[in-house]
Amino acid sequence: MSGKVKITIIEPSEIVVTGLKRLIEQNVSFHVVKTFCSVHEYNTMPNGNPDIIIVNPLTTADDSSDLRSLLQASSNTAILAINYGPYDEEALRDYDGIIGIFNTHEQIEKKLSAAIKNTSDKETYDNSNELSTRECEILTAVAKGKTNKEIADEFNLSIHTVISHRKNISHKLGINSIAGLTIYAVMNKLLDVEDF
After folding, report:
1. Half-sphere exposure at residue 166, Cβ-oriented, CA atoms within 13 angstroms
2. How far apart are CA 45 and CA 176, in angstroms?
3. What is the pLDDT of residues 41-81, one digit of tens each?
4. What are the structural domains, with CATH classification, of the chain?
5. Distance of alpha carbon 126 from alpha carbon 186, whole angstroms
6. Is 14 helix (H, G, I), strand (E, B) or coil?
7. Which helix H or strand E contains 52, and what residues bound it?
8. Is the pTM of the predicted complex or chain greater than 0.90?
9. Is 157:117 a contact under the CB 8 Å cutoff?
10. CA distances (Å), 69 to each of 21, 63, 112, 114, 122, in order?
11. Coil, helix or strand at residue 27
């Protein structure tokens, strides 16, 4: 991606917005172009098609719409949640990443960079049964019994991306159970029986 990464923040707290913006813009590659107090305000004002949207999930909690549709975001826009405390993995599964209120500048920068990389590297879905290299890695991790969070941490992906890969793997192979995926991984020499 050339030029600065354009970031929009949707957060009702001025203190949080000011601090987050200051931390983000310590890296000259990132620029916070707009801030909004609510999703409604974001959707009613010009927002300039940001590369990343950072949104407080509480501002979307009362809407049952798909997150990407709600924010009118393209598939090339990364959507990150800003989170104030412990979170339910399932509740934030639609986000491409999570920025915690206690994250350091370096952690925030890493999460923003990973989100941009993941959206620009998203593999387009195809109907072939052949797994990509990344899908083989994810399949092996699943067969070893790793959780979505563990896989996301290991490969520096968002949980949402891991879930998408798992859905694609199951669709391509026609296998929906972890046991079935494990057998497939062993039979196709992606995993050795001795790894268990």
Report:
1. 23
2. 43
3. 988 887 678 999 999 988 887 666 678 778 888 778 899 99
4. 5-120 (3.40.50.2300), 133-195 (1.10.10.10)
5. 24
6. helix
7. strand 52-55
8. no
9. no
10. 25, 11, 21, 22, 18
11. coil
